Amino acid sequence: QYLKAKEHYLKAKKLYSYGLLPSNIYDDWAIPKIEETEESYLSILAILYSLEKERDILMAENYLEEYLRIEPFADEMNIEYINLLLKKGERKKALDYYKYINELYKKELGTVFNSKEISYFVKEFQIY
């Protein structure tokens, strides 16, 4: 399963890095195709992250960071990223990312990034 996912990832990355369609296409027919391709790519990244998180934490981190560059408002993946940083012992980086994502949510969505699990981390270290 891992090799198959990796193969799909490499193909998708090649397509995605060039862009399936120019980003300035706003025709109605193009938008669903662009969104569908992006969803497929994100799905591949999520699978690879899941497969790697117990094997190779640095590779898992790369997949997760790439996912979040494309879709920064994915709550579950943001929680995964903060937990991954904590697992690596990078508490300051985890807290900085929490602050960053919280501000991004406020600015772009008019809400806050909310996770009980992460809130406990912030309270535990009484830094935020």
Give the C-alpha Rg.
16 Å
* Shape assignment: flat
Number of strands: 0
Q: Characterize the biggest β-sheet.
A: none
Give the N-terminus to C-terminus distance in angstroms. 41 Å
- Derived from helix and strand composition plus strand pairing, the structural class reads mainly alpha
| Tally of distinct domains | 2
In terms of per-residue confidence, which ranges show pLDDT below 50 for 5 or more consecutive residues? none
Total helices: the number is 6
Question: Strand portion, in percent?
Answer: under 5%
Average pLDDT works out at 83
Percent helix among the residues? over 70%
Helix and strand element order: HHHHHH
What characteristics describe this protein?
128 residues, mainly alpha, 2 domains, 0% strand, flat
Give a brief rundown of this model:
The protein has 128 residues and is mainly alpha-helical. The protein is 75% helix and 0% strand.
Walk me through what this model shows.
α3 (57-70) runs antiparallel to α4. This protein is mostly helical and 128 residues long. It is built from six helices and no strands. It is flat. The protein has two domains: 1-71; 72-128, no CATH class. It has helices spanning 2-18, 30-52, 57-70, 75-87, 91-109, 116-125.
